[in-house]
Every structure is written in structure tokens, then in C-alpha cells.
Amino acid sequence: MSDTRRRVKVYTLNEDRQWDDRGTGHVSSTFVERLRGISLLVRAESDGSLLLESKISPNTAYQKQQDTLIVWSEADNYDLALSFQEKAGCDEIWERICQVQGRDPALDITQDPIDESEEERFEEIPETSHLVELPPCEQGRLEEIADLVTSVLSSPIRREKLALALMTEGYIKKLLGLFRVCEEVDNREGLHHLYEIVRGVLFLNKAALFEVMFSDDCIMDVVGCLEYDPALVQPKRHREFLTKTAKFKEVIPITDSELRQKIHQTYRVQYIQDIILPTPSVFEENFLSTLTSFIFFNKVEIVSMLQEDEKFLTEVFAQLTDDATEDSKRRELVNFVKEFCAFSQTLQPQNRDAFFKTLANLGILPALEIVMGMDDLQVRAAATDIFSYLVEFSPSMVREFVMQEPQQTDDDVLLINVVIKQMICDSDPELGGAVQLMGLLRTLIDPENMLASTNKTEKTEFLSFFYKYCMHVLTAPLLANTALDKNSKDLQEGSTKVNPVCPGALRFMRRIIGLKDEYYNRYIIKGNLFEPVINALLDNGTRYNLLNSAIIELFEFIKVEDIKSLIAHIVDNFYKALESIEYVQTFKGLKGRYEQEKDRQSQRLNSSFLNCRYRRDARPLDEDEELWFNDDDDDDDGEAVEKRMGDDFSDSYGKYMEAKKGKLYSLTTALVGLVDYPDDEDEEEDDEEEDQSPRKRPRLSS
Question: What are the residue ranges spanned by the domains of the chain?
């Protein structure tokens, strides 16, 4: 369907009083047999599925807001809204609703929302009191007007009647004209009454009134009225702030006057809600729901208008990455993009997806790579916030970009490495920026949120990239802080002290092993990373301390969890050095696990050969098979077969373990350096090892 007049977005109000986007489609009004009445139908533009089917009930109160919105409630706490792409389409559906209900389409509300208790009271009131009579708009009647406005707030029907009267008589502009007169003559009492009046009118919660109050020629007078809170000794200076302090900067000239007006209006209305109006009480908290919706839909419209202006955004990113751009200008550009991203949080997921794809196509990530490495702290902070929006929305999009970078640049300016360096070099004493960047980095390297598809495994590719190009940058401070000082007495042979960073390195290794991920286990095996751990255990001797407990717990975990690859590696390479430790049964237990697995492998091979020998196969045996069976029949007790199987197992297992002792990875150097110690100079003979006390156990060769 190509008719954009009927193109709408369907919104529902959630429990947090925020609008959820249910999808985009085209609306029609037609008779639905099942509902027995004229109904509003919205079918999704993507697949034609039904997004909304709502009967136009004669008793439902529909409201038209901001020329392109129709809002109504279908049940308790279930509010709906249709946001039209074009005003003409909104007018057509509004006329249809009014036609079904027999209402005047010139009004912006079709019904008075009356609950049962209110309706009962309403029936008891004399007919002549149904109308709200507004006093003449004069200085001498301001107290009366204020009393009237505040008195209706507790009654939904009277709020509706007052709102209708204010709209039909053009009363708002008359009140604001009176405000200017009172301020000229310094009529403080009158100004205090006007504060109560304007605050009360805002609490009527009517979009039609907001359209008048927040228009260009009225909004500053509304702000002026709200400066004169009777509870304050001196009035606030909100207008001075909005006109002189808060300057709107067009980093790139905005040629669309409607867009510029919408930005100004949204900022000022947000200021009224967040700064000027006091925190509403429990009784008042729902009075400003329409104001919240007003701001929400304004932001949606601003983001959409900016997103559609490709020339504007292209110029923004061109200047942002241009070396000739002045620092002050670049700061303004970065802050603009940050606010742009903040506005996008009002969008629903599918709309944010399109938004961030637009930014990605325009080069947001290469731009961040440049500005995050700048010296300007404000620029870096704003760029970090932008990066945060991108990572939180789509880590995969960021990963895909950074994996393509090595083809175009060197390691030092890779985006991930820039992030790591900013995290390490954070000048904030409280490390606020470092903590934020740490969280983002953790999100990016978390295997749990990495995607896997038929043709591509993101986890394997990105982690391989990270270890190859980024791990050395991340671990550089650790290596610098744990480098061994050969002249240090604390680390000289025979010292009773241990490198204080050793337990930190152990915790790191324990965390990795705790993942029980063979990807990491292979790194540990290939890097021979258990050697410095076992050296630390042997150097510690019989001292019962934190280091001893941490190392024993590490090996106990491997035993209990039966991590076969690590058990085989430890027993094959280090058991001779560990077998003399008898104050715990951990290492004998590891040896037992190892032998059990070896027996299982042997039995499996034995079973495999026996199944091969005694199977019944329809095909004839070839000559080699016949000879094999004939030779085997000559064995009296099968010992030759068993010996051959044992030899085969030993050979294959030995080759398997030999393959694990390959080239060291970069991670090897990092972790080995953390807990390395000087070799003992005096090596004892093998026949003396068993007689030595545990305190004098030899170190492993490094």
C-alpha cells in the first residue's frame, strides 16, 4: 500500500508510563462482523499482519493531539495511540471516529471520561451546573480564577469541562496578556495567583492546551508565570537562563525552520517538566502523563527529521573527522552527536536499529576512533558516551567494524586499543571513565553475547582477533608492574616473601579455568602456563598461606570437575615434581583420574577391535582382513593383540600430548611473567629428591 496518508505507528502505554512502539502499518476503518461495529484496523506494512483491531465504541473518549496523534483508552491502564505520517490521514480517521460517535470533528476530544462514581455524582448535580463559567480575565478576578482551576483537579469531568472552556474562549492568551500587565506594575499577589493558574492548567493534562501554551509566542510567558511561586521569597530567573545562558548552537546550519522550532520547543518543555515544575505528589503524578507524551513524540519527530536529512548528517561527520576542524568546533559536533544519540533512546528497538545503521553508514565508528584519542577531556567524555550507546545497542556491529581495521591501519590506532589505552590512562582520581570503558570492553569480549551462524562464528573470529591485536595492550600494565627486579632482596633465592602480585595472577587464571572452556584450556596447555604456578607452589614450601591455598584449590577444582585435557597435561608434564606432596590428596587424585581415563581409552580400543573381529558382515572379507583373522587365530590367549592395542594407545596418546606443546601464544608471556621466579642454582641429583623435605623441593626448569 503506497498511500502515506494512512501510514501510522501503533503505540501502547506501558506500566512505566512510557510508550512502546508496536509497529508501523496502514490504518483503515471498516465494519468487523465479529466485533459487530465499525473498527480501526492497522495492518503491518512489512507482512500484512494485524497490528490493531479496535472497535470504535460510542462511549470511548478519543483525543486528537498535535495534529497527527489520536489517543484513547480501551480498558483500565491500557492506553493506545496512532501516530500518523501525515496530518491529512489523521483528519480522515478523526472524522470517521466522530461520525460513528455522532460528535463534532472540530473538537479535539469526543467524550468526557467519567468513571461510575463520578457519573453517579454527576447525575445528582442540577442541570445548570454542567457548564463551567470562567470569570472575566481581569486583575481583580485572578484569585477567583485560581480557586476555580485548583478546585476542579480532583474531578475528571470538571477538568474536562474547564479544559473545553479554556480552549473555546481563547482564555490562555488572555491570561498571558494579563501576566505581562501584572509584571509591569509589579503586582506580586496577582503574579502568585497566575502561578497557581498556569500550574493548574498544566495539570489538566490536555494536549490541545499544550499546543497553545508551548507555541513560540506563548511559552516564555508560561515560563514567566511559573517563576512566581508563592513559596519563594524571590522569583526564579528561568527566562534569563533560557534566553541568555542556554544558547542553541547550530553546529551545522539547520535549514528546516520546522525542525529548528521543534528543537527549541522540546528543550523548553523538557526544562519546564524537569526543572520548573515541582516533583508531583502521588495525587498529581498522573496529571502530567500527556506532557510526557508530548515530549516523547516531539523527540521521535526530531530524530526522524534529522535522520532523513542526509545532507545535514553527512556534513556533520565530514567536519568531525576533518583534520582542519578547530577543536572548539569539533567539541560542539561531538556534543551534538551525543545529544542525537540520547534522543534516539525514545525510539523503539526496530526504529533504533534503523537509526544506528544510518550512523554506521555515515562513519560513526571511524569518527569515534579519531575523537576518542584526542587530548580534549570533554571531547573524549562525549565520545565515550556515544560509544556506549553503540555498544549497548549492537555489540556485534562494533565487533564487525574492529575486525576489519587491521587491514587499514596499525595496531596502535585500532578502536579497541584506543578504548583500552583510555581506560588505563584515565586521569579521574575516582576512575569514572575507566569504569565505564571497562564495562563496555567486557560487553564486547563476552562470549555469551556473540552470535554464531552457518558461515561465520563470531566468537572464534573476534576472540582470535582480540588475542592477536589487543591482548598485549591490555596486559602491558600488568607486565610492567610485575616485572622481576633481579636486585630485589624480596625476590632473591631463599627469601620467605612471595611476589605480591602472584595471588592476583592466580585469581585471573582460576577465573579462566572456571569457565571450563576448551578454547581457553588449549591456550593454557600450549602456553605451558601451569609451570609458573607449580614453581610458585614449590617455592612456597610447606608454608600454609593464601598462596598455598589458592594453588591447591585450583588443582582441586580441575580434579573435581574432571577437566580431562588439563589433567592429562598436568600429570604428563608435572607429576614427578608434585608426587611428593602428601599433606593433601589432590595430586594423587589427579593421577587417579588420569589412570582411569587411560583405562577407559584402552577398554574402548579393545572393544573396538573385538567388535571388528566378531562382527557379521554381508560383504566378503578382503585378503588383508582374512590374513589378519588367520594370524589372530594363532594367538593362544590374545596377549599379542592386547599388547598391540596398548602400544597403539601409547603412541597415539603420546602424539596427542606432544601436539599440545607447540608454539607459545602471546598470552603465555603475559601470565608466565606474572609469577616467574629465579631458578635454583643448586640442582640435586634425582636419587636425592625423594629424601628431601618439602621445603627443599626443587623448582621446575623454566
Answer: 4-101, 141-245, 309-473, 516-607
Beta strands (DSSP E) in 33-130 are: 37-44, 50-55, 62-65, 69-75, 78-84
- Is there a shared CATH topology between the 4-101 domain and the 309-473 domain? no
The pLDDT tens digits for 65-86 are 878 889 888 765 578 889 888 8
Mean pLDDT score of the chain: 78
pLDDT band at 508 (very low <50, low <70, confident <90, very high): confident
Segment 328-342, tens digit of pLDDT: 888 889 999 998 888
Residue 453: which pLDDT band, with cuts at 50, 70 and 90? Answer: low
Q: Please, which contacts does 582-587 make with residues 24 or more away whose CB atoms are closer than 8 Å? A: 583/542, 583/694, 584/552, 584/556, 586/552, 586/555, 586/556, 586/559, 587/555
Planar angle of CA 660, 665, 667, nearest 5 degrees: 115
Quickly count: other Cβ atoms within 10 Å of residue 331's Cβ: 18
Q: What is the DSSP letter of 698?
A: P
Q: Can you give the pTM of this predicted structure? A: 0.55
Residues 6+ apart with CB under 8 A from 446: 395
Q: What value does the CA radius of gyration of the chain take, rounded to a whole number of Å?
A: 38
Distance CA 61, CA 203 (A): 18
CATH of 309-473, one of 2.30.30, 3.30.70, 1.10.3210, 1.25.10: 1.25.10
Nearest to 263 by CA among 275, 248, 277: 248
Asked if 386 and 316 touch (Cβ cutoff 8 Å), the reply is no
Q: Does residue 253 contact residue 311 with C-beta atoms inside 8 Å?
A: no
Q: What does the pLDDT read at residue 496?
A: 44
Encode pLDDT of 140-177 as tens digits.
Answer: 999 999 999 988 887 778 888 898 889 877 899 999 99
Note the CATH number of domain 4-101: 2.30.29.30
Is-contact 23 51, C-beta < 8 A? yes
